[in-house]
Amino acid sequence: MKYGEKAVQDAILEIWPNPNPNRDYEISISFPEFTCLCPRSGYPDFATIRLIYVPAKKIVELKALKLWLNSFRDQHISHEGATNLIFGELQKVLKPKYLEVIGDFNPRGNVKTVIRVASKRTSPVR
What we know:
Blueprint: H1 3-9, E1 15-17, E2 27-37, E3 44-54, E4 58-60, H2 62-70, H3 79-94, E5 98-108, E6 111-118
Antiparallel strand pairs: 1-4, 2-3, 3-5, 5-6
């Protein structure tokens, strides 16, 4: 196994303290090379995953997030399942003031899917 494959296999979300917990600010992250596998056909699905959040006490470390998102590449999971799982895990570990996850999937079979999951906004940012 190559070192990158091992890093993806062992990926976990690493959480850091928010350096500015008394200030509401928005973090926007785009991951344009997300892949997973269709649970029915096994064909690859490609997407841009967008994360928008207003942190409370914690922020996500970007390299750990990248590796964790790459771990989906061999999972048979629907667009809806992947987007909701990403949202749920980030919500659980970050407990942000606001979180939005958008799965913008590339067309396949002439069908384009965009999945959006968001929490209720408790912050005036935006």
